[in-house]
Structure formats: C-alpha cells, structure tokens
Amino acid sequence: MGDMFCFQCQETAKNTGCTMGGVCGKKADTANAQDFLIWVTKGLSQAAVLARKEGKKVSKDINHIVTVNLFTTITNANFDTAAIHARTALTIQEKAKILASLSSKDGLSEAALWSSPDEKEWEVKSKTIGVLSTQHEDIRSLRELITIGLKGLSAYSKHANVLLHDNEKVDEFIQTALAKTLDDTLSVDELVALTLETGKFGVDGMALLDGANTGTYGHPEITKVNIGTRNNPGIIISGHDLKDLEMLLEQTQGTGVDVYTHSEMLPAHYYPAFKKYSNFAGNYGNAWWKQKDEFESFNGPILMTTNCIVPPKDSYKDRLFTTGAAGYPGCKHIKGEPGEKKDFSEVIALAKKCPPPTQIESGEIVGGFAHNQVFALADKVVEAVKTGAVEKFVVMAGCDGRHPTRDYYTEFAKALPPKTIILTAGCAKYRYNKLALGDIGGIPRVLDAGQCNDSYSLALIALKLKEVFGLDDVNKLPIIYNIAWYEQKAVIVLLALLYLGVKNIHLGPTLPAFLSPNVASVLVNNFGIAGIKSVPEDIKGFFG
Fold it and tell me: Can you say how many angstroms the Cα of residue 233 is from the centroid of all Cα atoms in its chain?
C-alpha cells in the first residue's frame, strides 16, 4: 500500500488508483486529510440521522457543513491541507454538540464517536479509515460509488444554498446515505438499491439548482459569446458559482476592469440577468485542463469559485484567488458564507495593475439551449424529426480532461452523420463547440444547455420529446448517449439518468476504477452501460 489511495476521478493512475500522489496534483497528506474529513462527516451524518429519529431538529448549518465538506474533497477543488483540517475541526466540534443532545448513542459507529483535537492523531487515523479499509471488493465499490455520487450531489446542493435555496429532503438523504456507508450489515443488493436512490435525489438536487439559477437570473436564452478580448485589464472567473460572478460584476462596475468567464463559467453568458453588465466581456480559453497556458496569457487575476484547479505555475500563482469550497496553498482565499457579500476589492486592485489579456482566439460561440429555450423551439425540433431532417440526437454531455484519448470526442463529433444534433452540457463541449458543424434548418448542430448540472435540462428535453411523440419509454427516442466523465459531478449525473430509466449509455474514455467487476456487470446487464471503442467502430455501432 502506498502513501495514499484515491480512485475517484477518470485519470487515476493506471485506472486503478493513485497511491503516491494524485495525478491531479494532490499530495498524499492532502488526500489523507480529505479521507479523514469524509470519515468524520459520515460520523456527523450518522449522529444527525439518530437525532432526527429522536425527534430533534437538525439545523441548516449542519446540512451545509456536510455538503461543503463533501464538495471540498471533489477532484481539483481544494489542495489546501490546512483548510481541510479547519473543516475537520468544525465537524468534530458540531458532532460533539449533537452527541451531547442524544438520549442514546446505541448503534453509532466509531466515526460518530471518535474525537480528538490533535491533528497528529488525525493523520494516524486517516491511514486506517480510507477507501481500502473496506475489505469486501463489491461492498467497497458500491460504498464508493454512493459516496462519490453524493459528492457530486453536494456540489449542486451547495450552489443552490449560496442562492439561499435549500431542499431539506436532499440534505437528509445525503446524511442518511453517508451513514449507511458505515453499516456493515447492508448487503450488496441493498447497496445497489441505495445507489439508484442516490440517482433519484441527484435529479432532485439538479432540479433544486436549476430552480435557484433560473429563479435568480432568468432562463438561459440563445446567446452569442465573444471568445476574443478587449483592450482593458481583466479578471477571469472559473468554476460554477454564479453568485460569485454576480458579486464580481457588481464590484467591477465603473472600474475599467472587464470580466471574462473560463471553462464551466461560460454558460453564465446565457442568463438574462448578466447581460446588463457592459464589462462582461466574453469567454477566455477552453476546458479546465488548459488553464496553465491560458491563465498565463490572460495576464490578469484569476478567481476560482470551485473546481477545477490545476496546480498553478509560479508565473501566475500570485494572481490566483480562490473562494467557496476551492483552495490552494499559497493563494489568497476570499471568504464569505451564503447570504454574505464577498469583498473582491483585492482582486480588482490587482487587475488594474495588470496588462490586458493576450488574445488567443477570435469569433463567437453560441449556447443557451437549456430546457426552457428548447421547449420554445419544440415545434421546430419536432417538425425536423418528423420530416427526417433530424434523424438522431446525440447526448455528449459530461467532462473534459487532459488525456490524449479524449481526442476521440472531437473526432466522433466530426464523424457524426449530417442529420444528427449534439445535445451537450459541461466542459465536455470544448472538444467540439468550436467546430464548424453548421445547422439543420436553423437549428445549430451543437445545442449547449450549460454547466454539468444542466444535464438536468437534457433529461427534461428527453422527457418532453417522449411526451410529444407519445412514447411509453424514453429509450424509444432517437437519442444516443455517449458521455465523457472526469469527476464526481458526472457520476451523480450518470446515476440520475439511470434512475430516470435511460439505458445503453456509453461512458468514456474509461469506465470508473471504483467499479469492481461484479458491480460493473450489474450496470452492464441491467442498464446497458458500455465503454467506447474507436470512432469508426462506434459510429458504425450507433448508426449502422
């Protein structure tokens, strides 16, 4: 056994697990600190579940501690061991309060009862409670599949919480499911059922965030986004948190500083509320994994609101700021709880001293095809299908990543028959959203719904098409699913689709390392989950 063990992302070493340090750049001590944070969070959750059984109210603060803790451990979100330790201390402290309120502690596990203020003891303990502490391969696989799915769900829930939207049933489920991953009496079948239930609440979590985003900023609409640059100094904002963007735009008004989105923040341009800001300049760059070059050429400050952070070069490290669940050692962290106004004055002051961004591209890209916008075009879409102008839709949502095998998705998009339309969401779109694929009767051949959570829109679109065509099964639609994954939010999207009954999803570039052969077989046999092959083979398999 190595210094750590982590296999939660698609790029994990040899598709088995990182043991000396993370491919993501995460060091062993940070990985172990995250494992320990997850363990004490499971203990806090178990105590909260018992408190509810005793009729006690569990506060919203506890719910938020759980979701932020899980979010903090998502791949490429937080590399700051000290920040992770601070969350651990808070969790142990709040857990003790709940334990003190209980009339009985019967049935609680060591994770709930263990306590120490000593970080050295945490480090020792962290090496005994990680992923590999579950000996049974299939039980371990299912526990991790559930936990990893819950990490993705927590990210979406946290984004909604920031906009002061909560779903207590989602929070209760997260805590109940975390507690069940500590239960050695649960069978493989019971854990499979819990996995599907995680997918159900994944749908609820995405619906919560969709309602929070659209209720606050309006429904996304078809929008052309500039990918060139202006001559003013700029701030680039990356990640997913729209509230951070709103506060940044408010605070940069009249300063002479432009704001650019990057990677998963691109879809912010589609929301009507942000169009009033004259200094909202456009989108700079591509998917997260290119940021080392693109952040360097941007010249100005970078604000990371969530993942994905790539360990920064020294050339721009002093320009990189984090906020929310994100963190990187040596980089300034901007604090602020939900409902509080964050102070970005330091970021803005630095921007004024920096040269304008170096232009790396020019032109425009089009997006904003979330469910409300597509429903408005429903008649046009249905007519195109009925006339045969559109023969199939291809869902190519999910994540991008740095591995060369992901060129597959660019080549696959190029090879698609001309009567197909791509439905996408997430940073996977950067593999094909700048290709000249044209349109079909005025309908662009790449319909970008938005961020990874906007896969919810793609599910709603599929269900709407099922209704319009009078079908009894979503799998009878002319829709193919060829989804790329990288991190944990993609996992909850996958589980949500499985819960909705979608079958025959192709997942790549590799199947997750946390799926044991038996668990993978369950997904293959029950849901038709499959990997990808070569582009010619898959085009032939999908289209004959």
Answer: 30
C-alpha distances in angstroms, 479 versus 240, 391, 446, 496?
27, 9, 14, 17
Q: Is the peptide bond before 354 cis (omega within 30 degrees of 0)?
A: no
- Contact assessment for residue 145 and residue 138, using Cβ atoms and an 8 Å cutoff: no
Query: Mind spelling out the 3-state secondary structure of 504-526?
Result: CEEEECCCCCCCCHHHHHHHHHH
Domains, in order of start, for the chain: 13-216 (1.20.1270.20), 223-352 (3.40.50.2030), 385-543 (3.40.50.2030)
Look at the alpha carbons of 232, 235, 240, 243 in this order and tell me if their dihedral is positive or negative: negative
pLDDT score of 537 more than 90: yes
The tokens of 445 are what? 């051949």
Q: Which residues contact residue 124 at a Cβ distance below 8 angstroms, ignoring those fewer than 6 apart?
A: none
How do 392-395 and 320-323 pair as beta strands? unpaired
Residues 359 and 223: beta-carbon distance below 8 Å = no
CA atoms within 13 A on the CB side of 141: 20
Q: What is the pLDDT of residues 291-317, one digit of tens each?
A: 999 999 999 999 999 999 999 999 999
pTM above 0.90, yes or no: yes
What are the pLDDT digits (tens) for 356-398?
Answer: 999 999 999 999 999 999 999 989 999 999 999 999 999 999 9
Tell me how far the alpha carbon of residue 502 is from its chain's centroid: 20
- Asked if 486 and 401 touch (Cβ cutoff 8 Å), the reply is yes
For residue 531, pLDDT beyond 80: yes
Concatenate the DSSP letters of all residues of 207-275 into one string: HHHHHHHHHHH-----EEEE-S--SS-EEEEESS-HHHHHHHHHHHTTTT-EEEE-GGGGGGGGSGGGG
Mean of pLDDT values over 322-333: 98
Tell the residue number behind the tokens 């591509």, with chain if given.
Answer: 286
pLDDT in tens, 396-442: 999 999 999 999 999 999 999 999 999 999 999 999 999 999 999 99
3-class SS letters over 268-312: HHHCHHHHHCCCEEEECCCCHHHHHHHHHHHCCCEEECCCCCCCC
pLDDT of residue 184: 96
| Position 544, amino acid | G
DSSP element (H, E) containing 540 = helix 535-543
CB 428 within 8 A of CB 514: no
Average pLDDT over residues 184-211: 98
